[in-house]
Design brief:
alpha+beta, Nuclear Transport Factor 2, Chain: A, six-stranded mixed sheet, NTF2-like_dom_sf, dioxygenase, oxidoreductase, 3-phenylpropionate dioxygenase, dioxygenase activity
């Protein structure tokens, strides 16, 4: 529970949740990762494309309904993406990408719902793979805002995630993981 200010035990629990999530993604344990996402109403996973704009431009750099890398309110859509990443016949993942997700700058805020927590974090993602005779590697960095909700079973789950990449052009042709 969170009254007005999150206590140290809650902060550590949420940090450990995010660190475990990062490890599951690194190890490509996508089905276990999907279990960390909530079911039903209110679920949302949104990673917009950032448009580089003049500061005086009234159009924001990103907004709902415009370009997005991923925008879904359906966990099943993420499950389809995960299944494609796991498929041995997927040439985009053969040889497989080596992943590393680093999560830092975690801030926890209480919400009006004592079982829901707004969590801000920074994620750094490093990927490497061997293609032919060359080693290809790249990095992504993003800010995330999550809404974590404690279920009836007492476990935390991701109810909403917004991922704001700090790139206007992806350093890779395709994003082959989740952030």
């Amino acid at each position: 529970m969170c009254e007005s200010k999150p206590g140290p035990d809650l902060i550590v629990e949420i940090e450990q949740f995010l660190f475990r999530e990062a490890r599951l993604l690194d190890e490509e344990r996508y089905q276990e990762w999907l279990d960390l996402l909530s079911e039903g109403d209110g679920f949302e996973y949104w990673m917009p494309v950032i448009e580089s704009r003049d500061r005086r431009d009234p159009v924001p750099a990103y907004e709902r309904g415009r370009l997005a890398i991923i925008e879904t309110d359906d966990k099943r859509e993420l499950a389809v993406r995960a299944k494609a990443l796991e498929d041995p016949a997927n040439l985009a993942q053969n040889p497989p990408t080596l992943h590393m997700h680093l999560v830092c700058n975690v801030e926890v805020e209480c919400t009006d719902d004592p079982h829901a927590f707004r969590v801000h974090s920074v994620v750094l993602y490093f990927a490497g793979r061997y293609r032919g005779s060359e080693d290809v590697s790249f990095a992504l960095h993003a800010r995330r805002e999550d809404l974590l909700r404690r279920g009836h079973d007492g476990l935390l789950r991701i109810a909403r995630r917004t991922i704001l990449l700090r790139h206007t052009i992806l350093p890779t042709g395709a994003l082959t993981t989740f952030l």
